[in-house]
Amino acid sequence: MKKNTLQGAKETPPDYDADPGKWRLFRTARIARAITSCPEFSVGQIVSIRFFGLRDNVHVNYRVVGMPVYEARAQGKEDSESFPTLLFACALTDFCL
After folding, report:
1. Burial per residue of 69-80, b for 16 or more beta-carbon CB atoms within 10 angstroms, e otherwise
2. Residues of the chain below pLDDT 50
């Protein structure tokens, strides 16, 4: 199965050390609808979501510089060594709190 990865080094926001809570959306979420880029996740599944870093997003109709990226893992596997799924902030519309 192909993993959803982002190439290159991640960037950290300049104010991350002073206020890391600003970049946290939520710890857990339930998947509200099928995510085509993440076939390993299913509707209704609970996932853990954590801030990963900032990256430029060229996958949308216009270039977005410094869009937040979040890592998602299935609940219960947050501390496992399995590679997390990385999602741009705009992809989080498929989750509900």
Report:
1. bbbbbbeeeeee
2. 1-9
